[in-house]
Design a protein that fits this description.
By secondary structure, this protein is mainly β. The strands form eight sheets. The protein has a five-stranded mixed beta sheet with strand order 1-32-31-30-29, with helices on one face. Strands 4-3-2-33 form a four-stranded antiparallel beta sheet, with no helix packed on it. A four-stranded antiparallel beta sheet has the order 5-6-7-8, with no helix packed on it. Strand 13 and strand 14 form a beta hairpin.
């Protein structure tokens, strides 16, 4: 997603740092692996800061890993099903817990005082140097500058409360306008846009089952529907029709380096769990959708984008597909993990993809392992075996 000038500067520094790290790690051998043990800490001293931290959830807590070596730095006990997302800065992640969104300082391996309380914390969206949280149980949206998390206190936030609570999502654009979904617990219909003064300036209610978002080059926002994709571009909504009558594109991944959005594509409204083999590529310039059959299924945790806008999909055949979004051609296949099957329960572990700069991190819960791959060469950088099978996988967005 697009970032502010400040964030772009930070990312440039992080790219150079990460590239250096990747080269060093590659020099140690492609199949480097280790059994994870927490780093020892001196009693009474502060924990050493973790480099480019990753945060991985497991049944009962969180693992904090060094993003370069994948060494386990700390285990944090946290009961319940917890989700993790980048907070938008170089130190923090957002953890969705039973009580709401909590801010976790991954570099220092500790929760801060910042928390956005509310039932059913949902989507976390970063864009343009701002982070938006949508609380499904209340319909409340909170938007803040992730730089304000540095002092560990509650950041000042912009708040919007939906007319009715629902499983929704919101994103703030660089001009201060806020795109937020419309719906109820029973039915979701579309989205509205508020200007920086919270005055409604646009609305569309032709997106049944609206779910998920992504932003493409030029700050075009895509929202998934059950019959295509709803785009918000240059102050107006445009509908991208799918080739099938029912075609759910509920999960998307965007890049500010590409005008094309990557989405999933499901066509069976009655399936208990559809395992699609086709992905959708939505061209925001033409409002057209292209379908690509990968010959393997994938899950909602399989989609990501590379540093040059590459479309990345982790298949259930264990292959990480690197796709040219313009042509739909699979340009590279990285043998990442073994064959796997998506579980019926969406909260259950399955291999998960997280990408930061030019490194792809892939979890393999069945083996309790986590792997790092260099996207340019396709080679494995390193692996680690953890004490418990992992579930969600995320991290900070820039080098610490």
């Amino acid at each position: 997603m697009n970032r502010s000038t400040r964030a772009s500067t930070l990312m440039g520094t992080a790219l150079a740092l990460t590239a250096s790290m990747a080269l060093t790690a590659c020099g140690s051998g492609d199949d480097a692996s280790s059994e994870a043990e927490p780093k020892k800490q001196t009693k009474g001293s502060e924990a050493a800061a973790v480099e480019n931290p990753l945060v991985v959830s497991y049944d009962g807590g969180l693992y904090v890993l060094d993003g370069e070596t994948l060494k386990l730095a700390k285990t944090v006990e946290l009961p319940g099903f917890n989700r993790v997302n980048p907070a938008g800065d170089e130190d923090h992640v957002i953890v969705s817990t039973d009580t709401g969104f909590r801010v976790f300082d991954a570099a220092q391996q500790t929760f801060t005082e910042a928390e956005f309380k509310g039932a059913k914390p949902g989507h976390v969206v970063r864009h343009g140097g701002r982070t938006a949280l949508f609380t499904d149980g209340t319909g409340e949206v909170n938007v803040f500058d992730p730089a304000d998390l540095a002092d560990g206190k509650q950041p000042e936030s912009r708040t919007h409360t939906s007319a009715e609570h629902h499983h929704g999502v919101a994103i703030e654009l660089t001009d201060g306008s806020l795109v937020s979904t419309l719906g109820t617990e029973e039915k979701r219909t579309g989205a509205l846009v508020l200007d920086k003064d919270d005055k409604e300036i646009a609305r569309a209610e032709n997106c049944p089952g609206v779910h998920g978002e992504a932003a493409a080059e030029g700050e075009v926002v895509g929202l998934g529907c059950e019959d295509g994709v709803l785009l918000y571009k240059n102050g107006r909504f445009t509908k991208v029709d799918a080739p099938d009558d029912y075609a759910r594109t509920g999960n998307q991944a965007g890049s500010d380096a590409s005008p094309i959005l990557l989405g999933d594509y499901k066509t069976d409204p009655d399936a208990e769990l559809e395992r699609p083999t086709r992905i959708s590529l939505i061209d925001t310039r033409t409002a057209k959708m292209k379908l690509v059959d990968l010959g393997t299924s994938y899950s909602f945790r399989s989609l990501a984008r590379g540093p040059q806008g590459e479309a990345l999909v982790l298949g259930t055949n264990g292959v990480l597909h690197v796709i040219d979004p313009e042509t739909g051609k699979v340009e590279k296949k990285i043998e990442a993990v073994g064959d796997w099957t998506e579980p019926l329960d969406w909260q259950q572990p399955r291999p998960t993809l997280f990408v930061r700069d030019d490194t792809a991190y892939v979890s393999e819960p069945g083996k309790r392992q986590l792997h790092a791959f260099d996207l340019e060469s396709g080679k494995k950088i390193t692996s680690v075996t953890l004490p418990e099978a992992t579930n969600e996988l995320s991290g900070t967005i820039a080098g610490h």
